[in-house]
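Here is one chain, start to finish.
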Amino acid sequence: MEVKSVEEYMERIRVLDALEQQAMGLSRMLTTYTDRLQERLEQRIEIEEGTEAIVLASIKNLEAAVTKSVQQKQQLIVKCRQLDNEMEGVQVISNKLQEIKQLLDVMEYSIRKN
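Its structure:
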């Protein structure tokens, strides 16, 4: 490839310089975009890790609350059974008191009749 004149040679050098400058500008832009993308990805990862930690803590708290609720219900069932057993004795006493009252009523009626 022959260069016909110095002007042509200089023009080609200017074109090559301009292309080099554009390539460098594009390279800087690409570097800037990839750096921003990396920053955003890192922020996203941090957010997701924080969210995961919150979710795990919430699950543990829910598990603890459910376990406590189940234990309290079991204790309530035990107390209800105890009360039910104790009420049997009260029912027996109530029946006996009714029998005694009826006997007293019969005695009182007999005394009045005589």
